Amino acid sequence: SSCTFFLSYLLGMTAAELRCGKSVLIGKRLWGCFEDLIVWLHIYQWMTEIQNSNSELVTQHYLGNTVENRPMYYLQISQPSDKTKKIIWMDCGIHAREWIAPAFCQWFVKEILQNYKSDPNISRFLQNLDLYILPVLNVDGYIYSWETDRLWRKNRSPHMNGTCYGTDLNRNFNSSWGSVGVSYNCSSITFCGTGPESEPETKAVAQLIERKKSDILCYLTIHSYGQYILIPYGSTTEPPSNSEELMYVGEKAAAALTEKYGTSYEVGSTSLLLYSNSGSSRDWAHMIGIPFTYTFELRDTGTHGFVLPADQIQPTCEETMLAVTTIIDYVDHKYFPGGAVMLSSSSLGLSLCLSTLLEN
Ligand SMILES: [Zn+2]
After folding, report:
1. Which of 10, 94, 253, 320 fits as disulfide partner to 137, beta carbons 3.0 to 4.6 Å?
2. Ligand 1 centroid vs 142 CA: distance in angstroms?
3. How is 191-211 classified by DSSP, letter by letter?
4. Where is coiled-coil annotated (predicted)?
């Protein structure tokens, strides 16, 4: 049923799991399946639940309001610490119809919280890095795609006296805005808006990123479909200064992903691999100085396209998790080469001893 389908997307579980009558426990709250579920309300509740049941690690933050006046929130996963940490940003659902993207953001949060104590990689990077996760960037469009038009892509801003709707938020950032691969016609799916950051959703994200940019090491934005890991730029074929390293890490991430189920990904710049486009969030993030910026295009390669069957949600999330954590691990080791110093007296003694040796 559509309810099963919806819940499987929302909770990152397969339809089969839900059909087994397996109830879903998030925190202390038991979720049933209701026919009148309101998508955003429930993602919102899910975020609140996640925060309440992991209050030592997770906080929910207000980012801004959408065109239709819905609040936007992101989750911050931070291990309490005295030291200055850096930030990993990830957003999902900038394009409404790419439902697998928000499902992945939720999956990612769930996995981190379930495994951070037992998984040595996660516990290592959480000592150095805070994770900022925006599960649904384009809230209005996402709801519209659930309620009215499954293949809706843009936000819901009205133009031409309400005869034409929606700006492509991934053409609306201030990176060579309006120059290539966009339309100025508001009925087009790549309408870039009336100016850079003309949309409140774009502005909300851009303001936060701008404010924190000196601490942000990594900007990940999750889309579907095509099975690509894309590096800057879309607006020019001129490679970014760190393109070799971006490619190296991207290939490493794709290899980790493939190992799980054999799914193959291509890695490259948007303009060389796909098409030219301006005003993307990833290009913008790199242009303002965030070194590791990637766009993920998740499953599949076109068989089902945006309407990915529910039984692919879980494997897609599992394999993508491996790619994303590969990138985070790399960034962690690069910027925190000393690693997470364990506070047991023996290892502290050993690391002091080693650092003395290295200095001499
Ligand atoms: Zn997209």
Report:
1. 94
2. 12
3. B--SSTT-SHHHHHHHHHHHH
4. none
